[in-house]
Amino acid sequence: MAENLDLLARMKAGEFPDGSRVLRAKIDMQAENMQLRDPVMYRIRRGHHFRTGDEWCIYPTYDWAHGQSDAIEGVTHSMCTLEFVSHRPLYDWYLEHLDLPFEKPRQLEFARLELTYTITSKRKLMQLINDGVVDGWDDPRMPTLRGLRRRGYPAAAIRGFCTHIGIKKTNARHSIEELESFVRTELNRIALRRMAVLRPLRLVIDNWPVDAAGEPVVDWFELTNNPEDPAAGTRSAPFSGELFIEADDFAEVPPPKFFRLSPGREVRLRGAYLVTATDVDRDADGNVVAVHATYDPATRGGDAPDGRKVKSTMHWVSAGHAADATVAIYDRLFAAEVPGDATGDPMDDLNPQSVELLAGCKVEGALAETAPGEVVQFERLGYFAKDPRTPMLFHRTVGLRDEWAAVQKRARG
Question: Looking at the predicted structure, is the pLDDT value of residue 412 above 80?
Answer without folding.
Answer: no
